[in-house]
Design goal:
single chain; mainly beta; Immunoglobulin-like; 6-stranded mixed sheet; 4-stranded mixed sheet
């Protein structure tokens, strides 16, 4: 029986060692080298959280339970491990103060604890009196927290003991330590697709990743501010950098106002200069799905996109489509997976094929017809191309809620569609 218990425990330990236990840190480049905050979305599970820029994201299989590790965090060392009698734990202290060491059994019950005022340096304690099992040791102060696992194959029957051994003073070890406030857990299964939105002042950048180990994610911050002062998130897909949200400016790049016909369908229909609208003629929808522009705005010499950006032409849309696998699947890879009954912005159910594989995060702003009527918000998205077919017709791309395609088509230039800008 004892041999069976040992083998079962060893099997569990090996599985735990191979399980996901990844730490993700963040930095910036381009317009800013600092990161103020990060919005993390697990697109596979539909969960999200927000971190400070200095935080480290800790991806674990079960939130609240630290995975068994082989001391990849060099600030904590446990040896021997597994043990038959006792183990030493070594950890680093960056600032003198009260340090608490707690020991928990596999059920979460506290089986040992000690508190000590410790100096800066490497501290060594001994843990003994452990029966067979897997134990969690947690070490915390006002400035740090460490956690690790101890595998015991011993047969002690008394109480567990945590005993101070010695301290090696090292005044220069501060940089190796992790702040307790900076380690943020998120439940993660291997293969989950995560969307990271890094924010630094007026800049924001989106990165999609499927972590397979510890890493640092670098956000390349790019300026994308329109004439209204709206700041846009950006995303790099292949060799192209796109706005990761629909344009919503009410002004041309030169600061001139774009015409807003409001609910007057006749004015919209007869207008042969730039005009814009938004869903339900309610300005609150502008920030959710962006504005709808007729093609005369697109072609205006006044400019529409932020400085350094332009309206993509047909060739550039095709380049994006091909990179995403072709027109039969690209729509799904570019659509946000956010689906009703989630709040707006969202797609109607079933939002077929949606994975947002590259962070394009397409949402369906619908369109305004050439006679002024509004159609399709949350069911379809239409985006202008800068390529025209004739003096009255121009090309667009669209996606729908019940398919994974991205389609090409053409509209009368009086139609109103969403706009995505592409980096020059």
């Amino acid at each position: 029986m004892r041999k069976f218990t040992f083998l079962a425990l060893l099997t569990f330990a090996i599985a735990a060692l191979r399980a996901q236990d990844y730490q993700i840190s963040f930095t910036g480049s381009g317009q800013s080298t600092t990161v103020d905050s990060i919005r993390v979305q697990n697109l596979t599970q539909g969960t999200s959280l927000t971190l400070n820029g200095s935080d480290v994201l800790h991806l674990v299989g079960v939130v609240g339970i630290e995975r068994l590790t082989e001391s990849r965090n060099h600030s904590l060392r446990i040896y021997p491990n597994p043990t038959t009698s006792s183990s030493n734990i070594e950890f680093e202290v960056s600032e003198a103060g009260l340090v608490t060491i707690d020991l928990f059994d596999f059920t979460g019950k506290k089986v040992g604890s000690t508190q000590n005022n410790l100096h800066i340096g490497t501290q060594t304690f001994n843990v003994s009196g452990l029966n067979v099992g897997i134990y969690t040791v947690r070490i915390k102060s006002a400035n740090f927290i460490y956690s690790g696992k101890i595998i015991s194959i011993g047969s002690a029957t008394g109480a567990a003991n945590i005993t101070y051994i010695n301290s090696t003073l090292k005044a220069d070890e501060t940089s190796k330590l992790q702040s307790s406030s900076s380690l943020v857990q998120m439940q993660y299964n291997i293969g989950d697709r995560l969307l990271f939105k890094g924010i630094s002042g007026i800049y924001s950048t989106i990165i999609i990743d499927i972590p397979t180990g510890h890493k640092t994610i670098t956000f390349n911050f790019v300026a994308a501010t329109d004439a209204d002062g709206n700041n846009y998130a950006t995303v790099t897909i292949g060799s192209q950098t796109w706005l990761a949200e629909n344009l919503k400016t009410t002004k041309y790049r030169n600061g001139e106002d774009i015409v807003y016909p409001g609910t007057d369908n006749t004015t919209w229909q007869n207008n042969t200069t730039g005009a814009y609208a938004w869903w339900n003629h309610n300005i609150s929808w502008k920030d959710i799905y962006g504005a709808l522009y007729n093609w005369y705005v697109i072609s205006s010499a006044n400019g529409l996109c932020p400085p350094g950006w332009h309206i993509p032409n047909n060739t550039e849309w095709v380049q994006l489509t091909n990179f995403a696998g072709g027109e039969y699947v690209a729509g799904g890879k570019l659509k946000s997976p956010r689906t009703a009954p989630a709040s707006h912005p969202r797609w109607k159910d079933p939002n077929a094929g949606a994975t947002d594989q590259y962070g394009f995060s397409a949402f369906p702003g619908g369109h305004r017809g050439d006679i002024g009527l509004l159609y399709g918000v949350d069911g379809s998205g239409y985006w202008w191309s800068s390529t025209e077919q004739s003096s009255t017709i121009a090309f667009y791309r669209y996606m729908i809620y019940d398919g994974g395609n991205i389609y090409g088509g053409n509209f009368n230039k009086s139609f109103g569609c969403s706009v995505r800008c592409l980096k020059d």
